[in-house]
Amino acid sequence: MSKQTLTWFLAGLLVFGVAALAMAATPQEQWNGTKHNAKNLGEINQDSPIMRDNCIICHDGQGFANNVTKRADLPAAVKNTPNSIDCGVCHGAKAQAIMASGDPGKLANGFQVKGAGAGALCISCHNGRKLPDPEKKPAPHRSAQFDVLFAAVGAKVPGVVYPSSPHGATPDTCVSCHMAKLDGIPNHTFKVVNKPEYVAQACGSCHPGLTTVNRTALADYDGDKVVEGIQDEVKGLIALLEKAIEEKEAALGAHFHESHGSFAWEDNNKKEVKVPEALYNARFNLALVEEDGSYGIHNPAYVVSLLQNSYKQLTGKDVPGAALR
Ligand code: HEC
Ligand code: HEC
Ligand code: HEC
Ligand code: HEC
Ligand code: HEC
Ligand SMILES: [Ca+2]
Ligand SMILES: [Ca+2]
């Protein structure tokens, strides 16, 4: 190679390299905008979950990494600050061991899952922590993704057989769908991007040709006579169940509220109202599905069945005109 050709070759490499760098995003750029970054959590005070004992094991990155539930037990340098769930947390020793084993260990609500691949890391934090209990009336935590994906948790009507999950079987569970390649690297926004290129990678191995996460449902589940995308069918069912719940509460004169992770109903004099089990169950399933946040994608048939059966248990009749699961 002559000296001149070599110069051109090197210049070409440089241009190509810069272009490639400009195209590929970095994990840092993608992570910056997420809620794993404490900067995006708004105003933080001592009552925020990222600062509170018993919450920091999931809400504070160093709480998780050091396996600690009390701030006082954190290393001095990170004890008094909110600590992001950052690169070092998810690529540190504890997280690596969980990803390699595919086993998040026993969860707060007693469930165990093995073979969850890299998604076991996500499951360590993204689980609902509670089981339905009409006596104590707990609410699911705002992170019920594990519970729905594995059809593990839900207020079930005795005798009804609920569908299990096709999506719990994805090899890296959460990571397969949420961390497919985005701009050339594993997606560190952690959000499923509802664009054809992304959907093709996250879902295409099992649903060839799918271009939107809102995949057309197999039937009309909310009974409005239109077969919509599954997320719209689920939103339709949520609206129907919510209306039925509010009608029941109005008839009982019971005002609903949630505090300290439990549901409660009170009359006009702020005295507790005893409500039927079906009402608690319906509230639990409604919260579970809303807090899961995927509007049915994590486990379509299960979510449809939970909502439809809650509606029936509460009102005594099937969702009018709907295809039942
Ligand atoms: C097992 C792990 C875990 C524990 C323990 C935990 N949380 Fe959470 N929590 C989460 C996850 C994960 C989310 C985010 C879920 C999502 O975005 O779907 C969350 C979300 C929340 C939210 C909603 C935040 C928002 O921006 O909307 C609040 C409020 C909250 N948690 C409060 C608490 C409090 C208070 C405690 C302690 C008493 C606690 N959490 C303990 C995992 C946990
Ligand atoms: C919430 C957890 C989480 C956070 C935070 C996180 N990562 Fe990752 N990262 C992962 C997972 C999961 C993978 C995919 C690993 C696998 O499948 O083995 C990954 C993959 C990667 C890869 C690709 C490795 C490969 O083999 O291709 C790089 C590089 C990386 N992360 C860097 C970073 C950097 C830099 C940060 C901080 C800006 C960061 N990560 C923050 C969970 C995380
Ligand atoms: C150490 C605990 C922890 C781990 C591990 C973790 N998360 Fe989170 N995640 C949280 C908490 C806490 C929040 C909510 C923060 C808030 O809103 O206060 C959250 C929020 C989210 C959100 C909400 C959207 C946003 O803006 O960021 C998504 C999506 C998410 N996590 C996906 C994942 C995925 C996928 C994994 C695995 C690769 C994962 N998380 C691992 C604790 C965790
Ligand atoms: C089969 C693919 C798939 C699997 C597996 C999966 N998700 Fe999702 N997830 C989705 C889709 C699709 C959405 C909805 C995205 C939308 O509406 O744009 C979603 C929504 C969410 C949301 C709400 C996002 C937001 O913006 O608030 C969170 C949090 C989440 N998933 C976490 C998880 C966790 C944790 C796991 C593992 C326990 C998991 N997901 C497993 C596909 C998946
Ligand atoms: C590992 C394989 C696999 C992956 C990856 C996967 N799915 Fe599925 N999915 C299935 C199987 C199996 C079924 C059940 C049979 C069917 O409905 O095709 C299913 C069912 C569904 C249904 C239910 C249809 C109904 O009405 O009951 C929807 C919606 C869906 N998937 C959407 C998605 C989306 C969106 C993604 C990507 C974010 C995805 N899936 C990724 C295997 C997968
Ligand atoms: Ca419909
Ligand atoms: Ca509808």
Task: Write structural notes for this entry.
- With 325 residues, the protein is mostly helical.
- The protein has a domain at 25-90.
- The chain has 13 helices and four strands.
- It has helices at 3-23, 27-32, 56-59, 61-65, 87-90, 93-101, 120-125, 145-149, 174-178, 196-203, 230-252, 277-292, 300-315, and strands at residues 181-182, 185-186, 255-259, 262-266.
- A two-stranded antiparallel ribbon has the order 1-2.
- α11 (230-252) runs antiparallel to α12, α11 (230-252) runs parallel beside α13 and α12 runs antiparallel to α13 (300-315).
- The chain is globular and about 55 Å long.
- Bound molecules: heme C (5 copies) and calcium ion (2 copies).
- One heme C is lined by residues 119, 122-123, 126, 145-146, 149, 167, 170, 173-174, 176-178, 191-192, 194, 213, 293-294, 297-298.
Notable traits:
single chain, 325 residues, mainly alpha, two-stranded antiparallel sheet, 13 helices, 4 strands, globular, binds heme C
Compact overview of the structure:
By secondary structure, this protein is mainly alpha-helical. 39% of the residues lie in helices and 4% in strands.
Q: Helical proportion?
A: 25-40%
* CA distance, first residue to last residue: 70 Å
Largest sheet, in brief, is: 2 strands, antiparallel
Q: Tell me how many strands there are.
A: 4
| Shape, principal axes of CA atoms | globular
* Ligand species: heme C, calcium ion
Mean pLDDT across the residues is 94
Secondary structural class? mainly alpha
Topology order in helix (H) and strand (E) letters: HHHHHHHHHEEHHEEHH
DSSP summary: helix tally = 13
Spans with pLDDT under 50 lasting ≥5 residues? Answer: 5-21
For the biggest β-sheet, the strand order reads 1-2
Query: What is the strand content?
Result: under 5%
C-alpha Rg (nearest Å): 23 Å
